[in-house]
Amino acid sequence: MKNLWISLKITLAMCIVLGVGYVLVLRGVSAVAGPNGGEADVVTLDGQIVGAANVGQSFTDSTHFWGRPSAVNYNGGGSGGSNKATTNPEYLAEVEQRVQDFLAAHPYLSRAEVPAEMVTASGSGLDPDISPRGARVQVRRVAEARGLNPAAVQRIVDSLTQKPWLGLFGTEKVNVLRLNVALEEMCKN
């Protein structure tokens, strides 16, 4: 019986140390070493939160830049890919339809100029970023839809292009939500 009580005490102590202590240590590390003090990186417009910068959103209007397609309809609670092979006929039909839709919205592009990222969903289905090329091919459409000079829209894209960390790790990227918020702010002025 004595061993049972000792085992229960050790189990309870380990549950507290590992269940609570570990979480508190991680929270402390994220507050010191993480971006934004470990808090979510939210994007605001007119003082209102419009979304989290690290979660993709659906933009389909011609006045906005579009992000990558989502296999989960941008549902953060159900993040994931389609799990269809690249040879799956259903997947190929989806991609072909996305290519046709993208070309219809961007008639100045040829099929070869459509970035693959703009017609294929990511593994998470929630990518918040696109490549600078993915943004560049949309500049003309967005500028025309908003009645703006394409050079001004391109300057916004260039100013929001994030370089790889330390110039070595990762690739250049543009956050779609931040880009669309910058456009909204520019059009208000």
Strand order of the largest sheet: 3-5-4
The count of β-strands is 5
Order of helices and strands: HEEHEHHEEH
Q: How helical, in percent, are the residues?
A: 40-55%
Low-pLDDT residue intervals, each spanning 5 or more residues: none
In DSSP terms (H or I, runs of 4 or more residues), the helix count works out at 5
Helix vs. strand class = mainly alpha
Whole-number tally of structural domains: 2
The best one-word shape is elongated
How far apart the termini lie comes to: 77 Å
Radius of gyration: 22 Å
Give the biggest beta sheet.
Answer: 3 strands, antiparallel
Average pLDDT reading: 88
* Beta-strand content bin: 5-15%
Descriptive account of the structure:
The structure is a single chain. α3 runs antiparallel to α4 (150-160) and α4 (150-160) crosses α5 (176-188). The chain is mainly alpha-helical. The protein has helices spanning 2-33, 89-105, 132-146, 150-160, 176-188, and strands spanning 42-45, 48-52, 129-130, 161-162, 173-175. The mean pLDDT is 88. It is elongated. A hairpin with a 2-residue loop joins β1 (42-45) and β2 (48-52). It has two domains: 1-39, no CATH class; 40-188, no CATH class.
